[in-house]
Specification:
It comes from Kocuria varians (Micrococcus varians). By secondary structure, this protein is an alpha/beta fold. It has helices spanning about 1-15, 35-40, 45-65, 85-105, 120-135, 150-170, 175-180, 180-185, 235-245, and strands at about 25-30, 70-80, 110-115, 140-150, 200, 220-225. About 50% of the residues lie in helices and about 15% in strands. Strand 3 (about 110-115), helix 5 (about 120-135) and strand 4 form a beta-alpha-beta unit.
């Protein structure tokens, strides 16, 4: 049993050495999918599946820190997830709250909550706000933790802000509509001021974005992995990075 582990470690180390810093993506987004299926696969509770997924998030951010990935966006809770059965949603929100506490204690990232935060329970809102403040000076990647997030809602909120800001300056809505630009919308997204994601990864074998970073992913590279999120290994991440490094990005060309 020891030999395969040694060979596996050797392969992982060799794979990591093939990646140069210049080839790595600056911003990686991940749809952390498969917690519930993982739980069913092992005959355990959905809650334990989400806990396993939270543990993997901490591990994943350590990998990103080691590889010097600058920005990470994790799709943790969608607006649709807020309609889960009450007992599952209550447990999931508690797990997310504890996750933000652990990441704060780990000190390996700077956190920013992105999403329709007003729809979240007050305790989670307070925890997210506190973690954002307390991790502001941390080293490591900038972490966008997408909670209560929906890509369509983000675009609606951005356009609404554009018009609200214009109205506050006494500008007519008609003139604002005529002058509305891509840059105007980008400047009001949840991730405003950040680079768009270079690479989006989805685990669990599903090959769709489910509304994740709809505006920002126009020119992103996509990588779909069969592994359920709690089973996602460092070698799976390295393979995704290797695949990204081999692609020729066209940016619409």
């Amino acid at each position: 049993m020891r030999l395969p582990r040694v060979m596996y470690s050797f392969y992982e180390h060799r794979l990591a050495r093939t990646l140069s810093q210049e080839e790595l993506p600056h911003h990686v987004g991940v749809l952390v999918d498969g917690n519930r299926r993982w739980a069913r696969q092992f005959g355990t509770s959905t809650e334990e599946g989400h806990r396993a997924g939270a543990r993997k998030i901490v591990e994943f951010l350590r990998w990103c820190n080691e590889l010097d990935i600058q920005v990470v966006t994790l799709y943790v809770l969608s607006t649709e997830n807020l309609n889960r059965p009450p007992e599952e949603l209550t447990a999931l929100l508690e797990i997310i709250t504890n996750l933000t506490r652990q990441l704060q204690e780990e000190g390996i990232c700077r956190m920013q909550a992105v999403g329709a935060l007003a729809t979240l329970p007050p305790e989670l809102q307070a925890q997210l706000a506190g973690s954002v403040q307390r991790t502001a000076e941390n080293p490591g990647p900038h972490l966008n933790i997408a909670v209560g997030y929906g890509g369509r809602q983000e675009i609606v909120d951005a356009v609404r802000e554009v018009f609200t800001d214009a109205a506050s300056r006494g500008e007519s809505l008609e003139a604002t509509a005529q002058a509305l630009s891509i840059e105007d919308v980008s400047a009001h997204l949840y991730t405003r001021g950040q680079p768009d994601p270079d690479l989006l990864i989805r685990t669990s074998g599903e090959q769709r974005l489910s509304g994740f970073l709809m505006w920002q992913s126009a020119y992103s590279e996509f990588y779909f992995c069969e592994a359920l999120w709690p089973d996602f290994r460092r070698v799976d991440f390295l393979r995704a990075l290797r695949d990204y490094a081999r692609r020729q990005r066209r940016f619409g060309g």
